[in-house]
Design brief:
By secondary structure, the protein is mainly α. It has a single domain, classed as MFS general substrate transporter like domains (Growth Hormone, Chain: A), CATH 1.20.1250.20. Helices cover 86% and strands 0% of the residues. The chain has helices at residues 2-34, 41-48, 52-80, 83-100, 106-134, 137-169, 171-192, 197-204, 209-219, 223-253, 258-286, 292-310, 317-331, 335-344, 351-380, 384-414. Residues 1-13 have low confidence and may be disordered.
Length: 415
């Protein structure tokens, strides 16, 4: 009996981590396809004769889909749980991008990228709510960081695998095969993942659509959630500028080969993956679950990194690599902390809608900032203006996080 009790206890302890692996795989596969638009942007641009600003519209279209779907996906996750929606998100992403491989019209291609973005964006509240229910607060930073690592790891794999293959075989057949793999991955996640019992019980108590929208508008009055979301707008926009333009910047301005330029993107994404785990561990173990101070540190590092890159006019791959590693560690590493903060501001049963609202707001900057970055580069003929745009955004974000810190201190004193 004693041995059976120990065995059952071990099984119970390991169950959340097994579910985390399933969520990580789903997040990674969707990001592998969705974020391929960054590294493949150079080849798509050459194929369709696109300007820098139009190339910037590709990730903007992806995140427009995310902005559209985040709140409805949060609502559906709160009602239905995560398991069934994992499959739906994977199929939305895979089918949307699969059809892009048959098109030559830029406008229709953008629409399909938006459709793919519906699957990409819905994956966040779907997986976030699983983390909130499977893990206690002092483990969520680490767990969320691991899960969010799937995004940067997927993007890194897209640069490492899809870009070299596409230079040889063309981006269309390579992306098509990758989409088919994603569809199989979605089916696997569906059969592996299980919703926790307390989430199922909460799902049965979830409010109807009218009550949902009342709750949503109530959350929009939450000043702390708004400050978190506005801060995420700047960080999200900066991250996507890095992933969208680092290959073009190093290839066109610095004369680094396309392969090594792609490796710089891989480096930024790999270190972003490390950052998502590292910042979560630092937040959990050193700052006792405090998230805002971590976002302030990340903002400062991102500002210094973008300012440094802005004034680089000549550099080798080996000189640029550590700078981009630090840039990626901060700009691409913030996401897990953001998702935790947005989810923890509300009760667990509202985590889906809370993260959905924050994702919607955070995604709007990604629709605007990368095309604006490209417009500044086209207008000035230099990448400096684009990188300085990121530095300016980080200054604004730092002030907003400072205001959030003051609000949190006042609330603690009031309690």
């Amino acid at each position: 009996m004693k041995h059976a009790h120990i065995k059952n206890q071990a099984t119970f302890i390991s169950e959340p981590w097994r579910m985390l692996i399933s969520l990580l795989i789903a997040q990674l596969m969707v990001a592998f396809i969705g974020r391929s638009i960054g590294p493949l942007g150079v080849l798509i641009g050459e194929d369709l004769s696109l300007s820098k600003s139009q190339i910037g519209m590709l990730p903007a279209a992806l995140f427009m889909g995310q902005a559209i779907v985040s709140v409805p996906a949060g609502y559906l996750t709160d009602r239905l749980g995560s398991r069934r929606l994992l499959l739906a998100a994977a199929f939305m992403m895979g089918i949307g991008y699969l059809f892009t491989t048959f098109l030559t019209h830029f406008g229709i291609l953008l629409v399909l990228v938006v459709i793919g973005g519906l699957g990409y964006g819905s994956m966040h509240p779907i997986t976030n709510r699983g983390i909130i229910y499977w893990f206690p607060q002092k483990q969520r930073g680490t767990a969320m960081g691991i899960k969010q690592m799937g995004i940067t790891a997927g993007a890194a794999l897209a640069s490492l695998i899809l870009l070299p293959l596409s230079t040889v075989f063309g981006w269309r057949p390579v992306l098509l095969i990758a989409c088919v793999i994603l569809l199989f991955g979605g089916v696997m996640s569906y059969f592996i993942y299980r919703d926790p019992p307390q989430q199922k019980q909460s799902n049965n108590q979830t409010q109807g659509l009218v009550s949902f929208y009342k709750e949503m508008f109530k959350m929009l009055k939450n000043k702390r959630l708004l400050l978190v979301s506005f801060s995420a707008m700047g960080l999200n926009g900066s991250q996507m500028c890095l992933t969208t333009y680092i290959v073009l910047f190093s290839y066109e301005k610095l004369g680094i080969s396309l392969f090594l330029s792609g490796m710089l993107l891989v480096i930024s994404e790999v270190f972003g993956s490390f950052g998502r785990i590292a910042w979560g561990i630092i937040s959990d173990r050193i700052f006792n679950g405090k998230r805002v101070i971590i976002l302030m540190i990340i903002t400062g590092i991102t500002a210094v990194s973008s300012l440094t890159v802005a004034f680089i006019s000549s550099a080798s791959f080996w000189l640029l690599a550590p700078i981009i590693a630090l840039f990626g560690f901060s700009a691409a590493g913030f996401n897990g902390i953001w998702m935790n903060l947005a989810s923890e501001l509300v009760p667990p049963e509202k985590a889906g809608i809370s993260s959905g609202i924050s994702l919607t707001m955070g995604s709007t900057a990604v629709i605007i900032v990368p095309p604006l970055f490209g417009f500044l580069v086209d207008f000035t003929g230099d990448f400096m203006a684009g990188w300085l745009l990121i530095t300016g955004l980080m200054v604004m974000v730092f002030f907003m996080l400072s205001a959030l810190t003051v609000m949190n201190q006042k609330q603690q004193l009031a309690a």
